[in-house]
Amino acid sequence: MSRYADAGRDLRLDPDGRVGGYFKHAVYNHWDPYEDIEQDLIEQDRDRMMNAGEEAITEDGFDDLRQTVALFGAGEEAVTEDLAPLTIAMDDINDQMFVASQVYEEAKHTAFFDRYWREVINPVAEHHDIEVTAPTDDRYFMPAYEQLFDDTEAAMHRLLEEDTPENRVRAFCHYHLAVESVLAQTGYYGITSSFSERGDDLLVDDAPDFPNLAGLVRGVGFIRSDEGRHVGFGMYHVQEHLANDSVDESVVQDVLQEQMPNVARIVSFSDSGFLDAAPLVEYASDKLTRRIEIITDSEAEIPDVEELVTLDDGDTTTRSPAASDD
């Protein structure tokens, strides 16, 4: 039989299935990190911080913003690279297509944060006579961050040596759940709460009146939409492996609970005294608990994409209906 033939299926794709629905959602919700976050929004962020007084743009407070952008940018770059083993391991064409779309989206996220550093962060630092730094500066990366991403890389590369259902569950839990669902989602909550008029204000009562950053928030909105699909994809496959491949749910709990201290240390990075980290840690813990409850229950329904990207403020940035729930 030709290697291109497959007696087990009539057509090559299943566009109405769960993963096929995620891929369609990715296509419908395509966005451009250079065009869809409008230049005037980027310039508005830059001008607002340039025009803010020294009381608002302090070096400590501005460095918190820089560290946030640096952590996100490095994280997106890392996961763009670390997804490669999964593209080799997955053998279903629907999965392969979705993972290909995810690699592309992670690269777009990397491009957005790089653009923001070049067009906003550095010009504002120069304007306020604050030291100009690189987003790759070692000062921005704490041991917990390095541990979390080193563990994720190791879990993904293990698939190249021993591709088993249990190792796939570990890889999905590290990447799609600990990094994307818990850490990243908490970070997005922190950004939208601190730099927009929506959500809860995480700044302490006597913190400087930092300006709203509509360009940063808009970019994060698009990224959240992408990562709702990524999280759903990971949750779906973990749930399938637990139900069908005799993988014990303790594997999920062990990975996520092992990484929760790293997540807590990362989201508590600020030592400027302006940010109340306690709500962020609580938010991350709640996300982790809810994810474990869903994926360890074979009868539980995975939320649709819009619900997965909602940050409890009712806001999402999407252009199409949710992916299929089939």
From TrEMBL:
GO MF: oxidoreductase activity
InterPro entries documented for this protein: Ferritin-like_SF (IPR009078), RNR-like (IPR012348)
Q: Which domain of life is it from?
A: Archaea
What is the designated name of this protein?
Answer: Ribonucleoside-diphosphate reductase
Organism of origin: Haloglomus irregulare
- What's the source species' lineage? Archaea, Methanobacteriati, Methanobacteriota, Stenosarchaea group, Halobacteria
